[in-house]
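[Primary structure, fold]
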Amino acid sequence: MSLPPTTNSPIFNSSFYLGSNDYLTIADKRYQKLGGTGVFSSLSVAGGLDCGSLTIGGSIVDLSSLSGVTAGTITASKLVMVDANKDVSSFRNLTATNFYGIIQTSAQPNITSLGTLSSLTVSGSIAGTLSTATQPNITSLGTLSSLTVSGSIAGTLSTAAQPNITSLGTLTSLNVSGLISGTLSTATQPNITSLGTLSSLSLSGGGITHTQSAGGNVASFTKSAAVSTFTVGIASSGGACDLRTTTANDLYFGANNTRRFAIKSGGNVGINTTSPSYQLDVSGSFNSTSFYMNGTLVTATASDLNSACRQQFPQTSTIFYDEVAAIHALQRHW
């Protein structure tokens, strides 16, 4: 392919200017060049440039997408240009394969879903209901005004002191390594098999009900120094019940905050005395409808005994009277 001959103008001017009413027409449309060889080195247009099409770097520019562009406002089928504050508005939908860097956004009430996030940092608050699939890697949460879980919280729930937990659902197990302070209110718990050391235990309900199939101790109380143990037990057969000390210590029953009945470790029993000297020692009056001596019923009435003749006998003598107040027998004990 050969080029047409070059024609040199006889008039040389290093700068060529056109007036405001002038124009330049290049008639040969096959090879149109201004400066350089084959391409424009530069083209400066002070006014408007009217062309049918524009090609940049070998690609045709869609000039219609440039027409009517407003900085900061998104228009359908137009290029997007940010305003002086680098803001843009009127997005309807935004689909992105990847976002890199930091996304800063104001309140977004209509974000309905997010893909997999490697991390999420929220400096403010997440309001409403946060619905999420299984999240094994959530290691901590800030202050929650409330937390509702419709499924299960599996694993170990490690938490600092929570004074405001007022109720818990059904727990298959509960392990506490520290202390449960305050008042523990609970419904009937048939499966509590043991309790640790309690400094005190108060029951305001119907008391303690215990049922066991075999005999043995129902309750056992031991002094901290293990000097004495008091047990409440049920016999293996016959239904007898036991209140006893399991060591060589006395057993007392009281009323009005005073000991009134004593069973000494040796077997002596005292009524209204805590130091009985006999098998039965009563400090005070004794009243009985009948009286047996060595298995024999004593038939003398109180009147007979009170009206008996008082005579002087040695201290070791024993006197028996019959119903007519006659001396029945006199036996001297040496």
